[in-house]
């Protein structure tokens, strides 16, 4: 039995699973950001202890996906932009001490990529590129079945590829990054701006949102109802995303490009225009090989990836 | 002793070298395009036989870098856009039959990357990205010391990353590819267009070219003389190239990005603005690690890479 932990900015999740990815227990908790890292670690330890006590078989290892940069070589969290107190935290060492389990941590996008590769949309592939599109855009790379971290440990930052010269400001401080154009947050903003500019054409979207703020989900819901204004805005967004996906295809030539995260839940309303808009940017020799798939593990990509990571490395 | 062959569109080269990359003989010949593949193969065989006869020690293997797509798994040339008759040619098999040497072929950009990795600007690195910028833009990837070919064999096509939406037409049929903006050919065209638009500002460049056509070299020569018009045009070109280099850095996180090919001979006139223009596109976490270097093997990247390829695989 393997214990897996997914630590995000707003939630954390725990599962107990077999090495084959069969989930025996799963629990999900909200994060009290104000409590900081100390509070979260205490919660994680006590919930984990509870799961271990419930386990039908001995728990032998713990894998962790963390929502922020991780120094994989030293097994320290680098920091979290969402929750205070994580700077330079040796989380696996703490887990090991408290739960008497060997533990391993990596960045959640890397771990999510490994999850989809091992148990999800990338099963059977050799090389895989993973985008996770929600509040921000994270990325992970699998090469020859292993997470590829690059020479400085921070490979796979597809969210910060420059797409548009002098484009909108990104949280990283640069302009025109993919994340600043196509993250869930950015899609919401682009929709709001488009409606301000064309209030009439935005009728369907405004109607759907009612008194709630207009989000990425509102846009995709309107497109599902065949609203041409929403569809054309999604085409523009998929053009930007397609430039990045085409570059990933032309350079990494993976078997499969998996897209997960909240925005991917839009399903074919996202994936059909994305394939159409990516195609003209692909080198002709790569066109027949393009294989963009929706993540399959439904919010468990990171947790099941943490199972695979623990299994691979411990 | 290893025999290495570099087959380009306008020239072919042969060397005899030790496994350590010490070159014992080197010869370079012009290509008669009209003769097609058959003529070239005959030339290569007879020149190779001559080198083998001259060799101080037995020649045990042959490595080949080919200027066009190669199916590495089946060891067939796919085609050449420059010379007719190469379609589906099993070149290593022919070499093996005629010269009684085990032979191996790969695309010249891959082989050039391996050459710089083994003997040149990337010596001592683990992961390397290679751009070769001359008539077109080729690319090669070294991951964990090996050429990375991706799942379909055509990884590393940095020249066809989409950089500018609705940009200039590329030879591949797409618009706004890096190659259509920053190859030697494209730089020449951009310079000619800029001068048409601003004939007065182009004085220095026009003076340097005299009655010859204005090329990329003319532009870099003018910038070396501190011509502000040339420098500002190079800044624009480096902004486009920098977008691609930054994406390579943010995603592959290599130890080193090596740039070779004719355009790289401009030296610091290219590399200084390129570093300056790439920097603002890098994720802050990657900035301290950027390491762009000029290829060191002076026109022998492919030949010495073919030595390394033969050594690695035969």
Description:
Chain A has about 325 residues and is an alpha/beta fold. Chain A folds into two domains: about 1-115 and about 300-314, 2-Layer Sandwich (Nucleotidyltransferase, domain 5), CATH 3.30.420.40; about 125-295, ATPase, nucleotide binding domain (Nucleotidyltransferase, domain 5), CATH 3.30.420.40. Helices cover about 40% and strands about 20% of the residues of chain A. Chain A is built from ten helices and twelve strands. Chain A has helices at about 35-55, 90-100, 110-120, 180, 185-195, 205-210, 215-225, 230-250, 270-280, 300-314; strands spanning about 1-5, 10-15, 25-30, 60-65, 70, 75, 105, 130-135, 135-145, 145, 255-260, 290-295. In chain A, the strands form three sheets. Chain A has a five-stranded mixed β-sheet, with helices on both faces. Chain A has a five-stranded mixed β-sheet with strand order 10-9-8-11-12, with helices on both faces. Chain A is globular. The model of chain A has no long low-confidence stretch (mean pLDDT about 95). The interface of A and B includes residues 139, 152, 162, 248 and 284 of A.
For the structure shown, list the relevant keywords.
19% strand; homodimer; Nucleotidyltransferase, domain 5; 12 strands; 5-stranded mixed sheet; 2 domains; alpha/beta; 314 residues
Blueprint of the fold:
2 copies of one chain form a homodimer.
Chain A: E1 2-7, E2 11-17, E3 23-30, H1 36-54, E4 61-66, E5 70-71, E6 76-77, H2 91-99, E7 103-107, H3 108-119, E8 128-133, E9 137-143, E10 146-147, H4 178-182, H5 184-197, H6 203-209, H7 216-224, H8 228-252, E11 256-260, H9 268-278, E12 292-294, H10 301-313
Parallel strand pairs in A: 1-4, 4-7, 8-11, 11-12
Antiparallel strand pairs in A: 1-2, 2-3, 5-6, 8-9, 9-10
Helix pairs in contact in A: 1-2, 3-10, 5-7, 6-7, 7-8, 8-9
């Amino acid at each position: 039995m393997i214990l897996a932990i997914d630590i995000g900015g707003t939630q954390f999740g725990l599962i107990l699973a077999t090495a084959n990815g069969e989930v025996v227990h799963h629990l999900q908790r909200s994060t009290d950001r104000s409590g900081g890292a100390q509070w979260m670690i205490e919660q994680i330890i006590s919930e984990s202890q509870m799961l271990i006590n419930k386990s039908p078989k001995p728990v032998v290892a713990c894998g962790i996906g963390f929502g922020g940069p991780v120094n994989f070589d030293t097994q320290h969290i680098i920091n979290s932009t969402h929750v205070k107190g994580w700077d330079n935290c040796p989380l696996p060492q703490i887990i090991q001490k408290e739960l008497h389990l060997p533990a391993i941590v990596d960045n959640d996008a890397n771990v999510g990529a490994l999850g989809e590769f091992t148990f999800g949309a990338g099963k059977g592939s050799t090389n895989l590129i993973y985008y996770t599109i929600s509040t921000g855009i994270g990325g992970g790379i699998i090469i020859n079945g292993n997470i590829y971290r690059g020479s400085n440990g921070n490979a796979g930052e597809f969210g910060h590829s420059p797409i548009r010269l002098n484009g909108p400001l990104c949280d990283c401080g640069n302009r025109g990054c993919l994340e600043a154009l196509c993250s869930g947050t950015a899609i919401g903003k682009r929709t709001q701006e488009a409606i301000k500019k064309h209030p009439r054409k935005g009728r369907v979207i405004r109607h759907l949102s009612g008194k709630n703020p207009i989000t990425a989900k509102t846009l995709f819901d309107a497109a599902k109802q065949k609203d041409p204004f929403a569809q054309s805005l999604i085409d523009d967004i998929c053009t930007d995303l397609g430039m990045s996906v085409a570059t990933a295809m032309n350079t990494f030539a993976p078997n499969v490009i998996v897209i997960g995260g909240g925005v991917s839940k839009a399903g074919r309303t996202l994936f059909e225009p994305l394939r159409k808009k990516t195609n003209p940017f692909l080198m002709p020799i790569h066109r027949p090989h393009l294989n963009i798939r929706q993540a399959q593990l439904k919010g468990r990509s990171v947790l099941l990836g943490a199972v695979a990571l623990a299994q691979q490395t411990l």
